Amino acid sequence: MIIESLLDTDIYKYSMMQAVLHQFPGAEVEYQFKCRSEGADLRPIRQDLEREIEHLCSLKLGPEELNFLSSLRYMKPDFIEFLRLFHLQSRFVDIGEEDGQLSIRIRGPWLHTILFEVPVLAIISELYSRHSWPDHELDKGRERLERKIEQVRELDRPGEFVFADFGTRRRFSRDWHEEVVGKFAREIPGSFRGTSNVRLAKELGLVPIGTMAHEFVQACQALGPRLAETQRFAFEVWAREYRGDLGIALSDTYSLDAFLRDFDMYFCKLFDGARQDSGDPMEWGEAMIAHYEENRVDPKSRNLIFSDSLTIPRAAEIWQRFRDRINVSFGIGTNLTHDTGVKPANIVIKMTECNGQPVVKLSDSPGKIVSTDQHYLAWVRQAFDVPAD
């Protein structure tokens, strides 16, 4: 089976899950799956997907896995005890077909559905690879992997160029993912600092890297005060949960301009930095540096993490622009874990409702906007003063 451990997911799923347990244990949510790749028909993998999800729901965390999670300083004992009893439940997942495409809805308590997203996407990605290219050899992938390592070594200050693997959800396969991460860890340990994947971090002795995802900020549209205050509310709740740990704020749930308005001097000093996941990275970096300076925070004491559709050369270009002005690092996903000579499916699972009301993500890239209700989307745009394109 593709998923053999509940740790085969991104660490930010566990950090958000802990915050949900403590802050919003009664929240009910819905997620929807979407394939953004034109012409990619995923219906033939439906039967295998259902079988894989049933297996996923049979998994529980064992003592060694729980010990690893409890070794992370920000994981709290009551959460570990909750995980000792936890397993996913397939009754929260509805798989069907809609408009000639595979459809997936995940609906239920947030606490009991939050861990579905990443492994389900990893399953779909690997099943699609098997179905589309059953005899695919990885020679091209290994050549490209070697070239990536050389690209890092050829930088003028390679020891200062820092990146991590963020590629679990769209990997070519579990085995290829492990090969890629292991190769980077052995060959360029000074630059390759970790992985978002908890299982690989445990097995390879790496640091699990990640903080929050858009769903946490989105859910606060239904869980917080009036709409215009919900981004600040999300950051306040996060800071209350982690008391200075995991201090990277996600900047593009409502657009960069809305983020900068909310991310005032208090948050500039409270959080260690911010993550960019849409829009122009150069414009974003310049805006963040200027914002820190305006709020009397030394940019060199803060961290910018870039994670939007990166390659090693593109990350190096961003790094060379900002490296002497602020601390920069990179989370690279699909280009690390699916660069094997075939085209990956662009697949996502996004939260669309919380407590019975729609939630949206505006983003700084039009293609990443998430909304199932255009009237509610217009209301969010008005609340955060984000014009329609």
UniProtKB/TrEMBL annotation:
One example GO MF annotation: nicotinate phosphoribosyltransferase activity
Signal peptide: none
EC numbers: 6.3.4.21
Post-translational modification: Transiently phosphorylated on a His residue during the reaction cycle. Phosphorylation strongly increases the affinity for substrates and increases the rate of nicotinate D-ribonucleotide production. Dephosphorylation regenerates the low-affinity form of the enzyme, leading to product release.
Name of one Pfam family that matches: NAPRTase_N
Name this protein carries in UniProt: Nicotinate phosphoribosyltransferase
Keywords of the record: Glycosyltransferase, Ligase, Phosphoprotein, Pyridine nucleotide biosynthesis, Transferase
Gene Ontology CC entries for this record: cytosol
Source lineage: Bacteria, Pseudomonadati, Pseudomonadota, Gammaproteobacteria, Chromatiales
Domain Nicotinate/nicotinamide phosphoribosyltransferase: 161-387
Database matches in HAMAP family: NAPRTase
Record-listed Phosphohistidine modification sites: H214
Broad EC category: ligase
Pathway membership, UniProt: Cofactor biosynthesis; NAD(+) biosynthesis; nicotinate D-ribonucleotide from nicotinate: step 1/1
Chain ranges of the Nicotinate phosphoribosyltransferase N-terminal domain: 7-125
Function: Catalyzes the synthesis of beta-nicotinate D-ribonucleotide from nicotinate and 5-phospho-D-ribose 1-phosphate at the expense of ATP.
Keyword Iron: no
Keyword Chaperone part of the UniProt annotation: no
InterPro entries: N/Namide_PRibTrfase, NAPRTase_N, Nic_PRibTrfase, Nic_PRibTrfase-Fam, Nicotinate_pribotase-like_C
Family of the protein in this entry: Belongs to the NAPRTase family.
CDD domains assigned: PncB_like
GO biological process: NAD+ biosynthetic process via the salvage pathway
Catalytic function, reaction form: 5-phospho-alpha-D-ribose 1-diphosphate + nicotinate + ATP + H2O = nicotinate beta-D-ribonucleotide + ADP + phosphate + diphosphate
